[in-house]
Specification:
The complex is a heterodimer. By secondary structure, chain A is α/β, with parallel strands linked by helices. Chain A folds into two domains: 105 residues, Urease, subunit C, domain 1 (Roll); 308 residues, TIM Barrel (Alpha-Beta Barrel), CATH 3.20.20.140. Chain A contains 14 helices and 19 strands. In chain A, strands 1, 2, 3, 4, 5, 16, 17, 18 and 19 form a nine-stranded mixed sheet that branches. An eight-stranded parallel sheet of chain A has the order 6-7-8-9-10-13-14-15. Chain B is α/β, with parallel strands linked by helices. In chain B, 49% of the residues are buried. Chain B contains twelve helices and nine strands. Chain B is globular, with a radius of gyration of 19 Å. Chain B has a five-stranded parallel sheet. Chain B has a four-stranded parallel sheet with strand order 2-1-3-4, with helices on both faces. Chain B folds into two domains: 142 residues, Rossmann fold (3-Layer(aba) Sandwich), CATH 3.40.50; 149 residues, Rossmann fold (3-Layer(aba) Sandwich), CATH 3.40.50. Chains A and B meet through α6 of A and α4 of B.
Chain lengths: 429, 314
């Protein structure tokens, strides 16, 4: 059935479009955009006061397949994506086993297609078994549909391996997504190194660990004239390094998370591992710098680093609990409440960094709702007040530092491939 | 002196950060009376008769565990000991489930030592009995901080205005962190020193805490020196070059001791590495209160158990 999204504020950063108008969806495509569309028989959805935008893209999620389905699987992850307004996600390969060969990439693509709630792109492991030693078969994986490569979760310790990877990947024009923490400086660390870690006695993960890693990979990208993408940037100095690299014309892109944009290590409660994440929540100075980087274009994309874990894994001693928490279902609310409504980030920029920019980095035909494009659309209600309640999550992960937070702004309708997959917070498939 | 109306009944003892000056004062005053009990011929009072206490130790300990057990027994409580190596913990039982098990058996207090910072606070969140932190990683060891204050006050007659030096491995030391919290609350100026590799960054962003690169600067004119234990594996992980060099440059010996006040009080949480962080001459010398600390530890733990389990008035 045709869908007419009537009278919303349509924001399409791919074409610099921002108008109050209507959008007609027919046969899985954007059929028309305009204020006087005649569409007899179409389902009319009143979008007045709401934002109509391309379905969101998260280029950094962990859906845990294969092997860690107690944490999340493609179905629960897809539902979380739909609930959050995302129509495209890219899954990280730090699974068990790692996604480091074409057969696995193909099987995951097929599985995503069968579920059909959102487009799941697959990021392949950069090295075999994510061991940082030998290159994985990135050429095969590219042909099987992998969109980027990453040993996310690990820093590629060997500069030689990283340089080889950059050189070798030039043939495939895929970016390497880099988890930037120099291993020897973060071993055993469970939170940001700062006053709070010093007082708690918890071993820290210093910002300099990230800065060294970012600097090395920028230098290698420059040397190899290749592309790197800095994952979940969190340190002020790292933002400066990327800014300077871009100024020099080095092909570097970067992403940041809602938590690194809005939370500091002041919130770390060592009886609740919900705040444990890598890189860790940093200082106020760092969150401010990450936001500045987002605003001035140093940071290209907003990602959630959606990292659910099983209840029994997170409900334990802080330093023993795994790092990461889910983010797909809270991102829009957090960004709208903490940044957009406080006048620190425009809604257009926010949407651009969650649609057009990640599509550009991964080379996806997505994140654009021009006429004729695939109908992946989100409708956001910027005024909806809600409270984050883990029992209502679709993800299997329940330990989030945003639980209990009162937010304003939420995705209320998700259309994937011309079909409604979420309406008023309820995944409809 | 005005009567202290503070009550610790039902309070979890997680760290001295959560203690007010008045609460610390109450523990120290109560411990004085408890120390008399230790010197009696019949060391048993019925203050905690009918109460049951379990010590739950995930890390080895001689003095702290024995001290809590003895403290409970002198007060008439039933005390049971659980250690990681001989319990379901080695079968992989979670901390939550172990705590639930002890809770439903009816224990009134769980005295807990654990490798993980925050484990005691986590326990307090999930379990009902009074939780007494007997050391959680490098975070806190509140009863040690209190017994140090008790020992200092016994010798100096007061706490306010004293200058204390804490020297050695601050990074890995729960004792140092509890000392810092307790001493600052009671008006003692704290000077920290040790190799920079064993001093955490950012610890010293608070008033009354000073950090020095060399121990000579820290112990100058000190009223109290707390010498921390150097764990032998720290050298292996590259934090200082050799035991020999540590002893020579950062160890407390008789020559360095002359920099402090004549009546300086020497503390050490034990177990000591004599000849490494402290010379035998200093450890057994006339300024040393290291043996007294052990006895005072029993008195302070008696006070903590009595105050948290009964309010101290029963």
């Amino acid at each position: 059935m045709d869908i007419l999204l009537q009278g919303g504020r349509v924001i399409n950063p791919a074409t610099n479009y921002d108008c109050d108008t209507s959008v007609l969806i027919r046969d899985g495509k954007i059929a028309d955009i305009g204020s006087d569309i005649e569409a007899p028989g179409a389902e009319c959805i009143d979008c007045s006061g709401r934002i109509v935008a391309p379905g969101l893209i998260d280029m950094h999620v962990h859906f845990r397949e294969p092997g860690q389905e107690a944490k999340e699987d493609f179905l629960s992850g897809s539902k979380a994506a739909a609930a959050g307004g995302y129509t495209t996600v890219a899954t990280m390969p730090n699974t068990s086993p790692a996604v480091d060969n074409a057969a696995l990439v193909r099987s995951l693509k097929k599985r995503a297609h069968d579920i059909g709630l959102c487009n799941i792109e697959v990021i392949g492991a950069l090295t075999k078994g994510r061991q940082g030693k030998e290159l994985a078969e990135v050429g095969d994986m590219t042909e099987a549909g992998a969109v980027a490569f990453s040993d996310d979760g690990n820093f590629v310790d060997s500069a030689r391996v990283m340089l080889n990877a950059l050189d070798y990947l030039r043939a495939f024009d895929k970016t390497i997504i880099c988890h930037e923490e120099e291993t020897s400086l973060v071993e055993e660390g469970a939170m940001n190194e700062g006053h709070r870690s010093a007082m708690l006695g918890i071993k820290g993960r210093p910002t300099v660990a990230e800065d060294i890693a970012v600097a090395r990979d920028i230098l290698l990208a420059e040397y190899a004239d290749a592309r790197v993408h800095i994952a979940h940037i969190s340190s002020a100095r790292s933002v400066e390094l990327v800014r300077e690299a871009k100024r020099r014309g080095i092909r570097v892109t970067a992403e940041a998370t809602p938590h690194h944009l809005t939370m500091t290590d002041d919130v770390v409660d060592y009886t609740d591992s919900a705040t444990k994440v890598n890189p860790p929540l940093r200082s106020k100075k760092d969150t401010e710098a990450v936001l500045q980087g987002l605003l001035d274009g140093t940071i290209d994309a907003i990602v959630t680093d959606h990292s659910p874990h099983a209840e029994e894994e997170k409900d334990r001693e802080y330093i023993y609990a795994p790092s990461g928490f889910p983010g797909l279902e809270t991102a829009v609310g957090v960004l709208m409440s903490e940044l957009v409504q406080k006048g620190r980030l425009s809604i257009d920029t926010m949407i651009s960094k969650m649609t057009k920019e990640p599509a550009r980095i991964l080379g996806l035909d997505a994140g654009d709702i021009s006429i004729g494009k695939k109908a992946d659309v989100v409708v956001i209600d910027p005024h909806l007040d809600w409270t984050v309640d883990a029992s209502k999550f679709y993800t299997r992960g329940s330990h989030s530092p945003f639980v209990g937070r009162k937010l304003t702004g939420k995705s209320v309708l998700t259309i994937y491939n011309g079909r409604i997959v979420m309406r008023d917070g309820v995944v409809t498939v | 002196m005005a009567k202290n109306t503070t009550s610790l009944r039902g309070k979890d003892v997680l760290g001295l950060k959560d203690f007010s000056k008045e609460e610390i004062r109450l523990v120290l005053d109560t411990a004085k009376g408890m120390k008399d009990i230790i010197h009696r011929d019949i060391k048993k009072v019925p203050a905690l008769r009918g109460k049951s206490i379990v010590t739950l130790f995930y890390e080895p300990s001689t003095r702290t565990r024995t001290s809590f057990e003895t403290a409970g027994k002198y007060l008439g409580a039933d005390v049971v000991n659980v250690t990681a190596g001989t319990s379901s913990i080695i079968k992989g039982e979670s901390l939550r489930d172990t705590l639930y098990t002890l809770q439903v058996m009816g224990f009134d207090a769980i005295v807990m030592r654990h490798k993980a910072e925050g484990a005691a606070a986590y326990a307090a969140k999930v379990a009902d009995p009074v939780i007494i932190n007997a050391g959680d990683g490098a975070h806190a060891h509140p009863s040690q901080g209190l017994l140090n204050l008790f020992t200092i006050e016994e010798h100096k007659g007061h706490l306010e205005g004293l200058k204390a030096a804490i020297i050695g491995d601050i990074s890995h030391s729960r004792v140092a962190r509890s000392d810092i919290q307790g001493m600052r609350k009671m008006g003692i100026e704290v000077h920290l020193a040790g190799p920079k590799t064993l001093l955490p960054r950012y610890l010293f962003e608070e008033p009354g805490i000073f950090v020095h690169d060399r121990i000579e600067e820290a112990i100058k004119d000190a009223d109290v020196i707390n010498v921390l234990r150097i764990q032998l594996e720290r050298q292996k992980s590259g934090l200082f070059p050799s035991m020999r060099e540590y002893a020579r440059i950062f160890g407390l010996n008789e020559k360095r001791l002359t920099l402090a006040k004549d009546d300086v009080l020497i503390l050490h949480p034990g177990p000591m590495n004599k000849g490494l962080e402290i010379s035998p001459y200093v450890a057994y010398g006339s300024n040393s209160a290291i043996q007294e600390q052990v006895q005072n530890g029993v008195a302070v733990r008696m006070a903590l158990l009595a105050l948290t389990l009964t309010g101290g008035n029963d």
